[in-house]
Amino acid sequence: MLKASCTRLSSRFLLVLLVLSLFVPCVSYAEQTVLTPGITVQTMYDDNVHFDGKGDWEFRVTPSLKLEVSQEDWKIGGGGRAAVFRYNNLSQYDRENYRFWIDGEKDLNERFQLNFDASYDYDHTFVDELTQSGTQTASALRRKYGFTPGAKWSLTEKDQLSFSIPISAIRYAGKDNPDSTATGGVLGWTHIMNNEVVSLLGQGTYNHYLYDRLDGDTNQDVFGLMGGMSYNPTELLNLRGLVGLGYYKSDVTFDSRSNEKTSRGYFSFDLSGTYSREKWKFTLGADRQVSPSTYGESSLRTRGRASGEYFFTERFSAYLEGAAYNTETGGLVSESKTRTYYVRPWLKYQWTEDASIRLEYKHTNTKNRISGKENHQNRIGLHFQYEYPSFL
Question: Alpha helices, DSSP H only, in the chain?
Answer without folding.
Answer: 2-21, 24-27, 125-133
